[in-house]
Every structure is written in structure tokens, then in C-alpha cells.
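Suppose a colleague, Dr. K., hands you the sequence of a protein chain of 170 amino acids and asks what its three-dimensional shape might be. Before reaching for any lab equipment, you can write down a predicted structure in C-alpha cell form. Begin with the sequence itself:
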Amino acid sequence: MRIPTPGRVRPPVRGGLQLIAHRARFRPMRPTVAEPTSMAMTDGIRVRVQSHYLADQSSPRDDRYVFAYTITISNEGSRTAQLRTRHWIITDGRGTVEEVRGDGVVGEQPRLQPGQTFQYTSGCVLTTPIGTMQGTYRMWRDDGSYFDAQIAPFSLASPASTRLAEHEAN
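The predicted structure, expressed as C-alpha cells, is then:
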């Protein structure tokens, strides 16, 4: 098989491959359903997440899908760390990305000594029944140094979108 040189246009492929390429080009893309849980460890700080869909606050007819997520931050290291800021990357089912930055979490900037844990619950509203979140917490040490504790990607998925993804996989 000859690899085309840059700037050279290959003629269209005839037959079945052309049809497959044509279908793939116009097939709507669906995000893969990730797990509703995640865990990451950065410099002794463990961040665990569990998300769930809030049907009673959602209105699919109005493209309103509400999710809650519970975060548990544990200091499993040997040095104290304080959560000062957050950075979220939220991606909906259409691939639209929104970034959210702010001070602390739920109005607090928890300072965790070794062995301590902080837990909170917050929420997210999407216009699609599925999405993902991931991000970082900026953690400061008592000596003035800092690092970004990772929040591993986790899914936001309504039960209907989860069933649809399972059906399409089979």
C-alpha cells in the first residue's frame, strides 16, 4: 500500500468502505458512559467521588438533568494540607466543555492534618442526560508550597442514558 504524500488527494474509495466512512461521518457521537465513581491520590491526598442522578429535580422534557456528587478528601500523607481553590472541567453529552474555578468548596477551605477527612455534597445541572466531570483542588502546605490534587473523571448519567448505552453496546 502506498502512503499518499502531503498535499496529494487520494481518490474516494469505492464499495463498502465508502459507505462505512459515509455513515461514520454523519453518525452522532455519544460519549462513553464512565463510572459514577472515581478515586485519585496526589501527594498523600486521596479524592473519592460518587455521583447520582436527581430525578425529582430534573426535567428531561426541558433538557434539565440534575446530578449530585459526594466528594471525600482524605489526607493519607504525613503533612498537613489546606484546600484553597477548585477547578472543574464539566463536559456534557454534546462535548461542550465548561470550566469552573473558585475558592474552596461549599464555602469552606478545609485544612486536613494527617489522618483527617473532609466530605461534602454538591451538584451540577446539564442540558444532556449524560456528561463527565474532572478537575483539581489546589492544596497548600504549611511551608507555603502547593500542589494540585487530582479529581479523576467520573460520569454524570441519568438511568435512561445508562440503559441506552448498555443496549447499544449489546
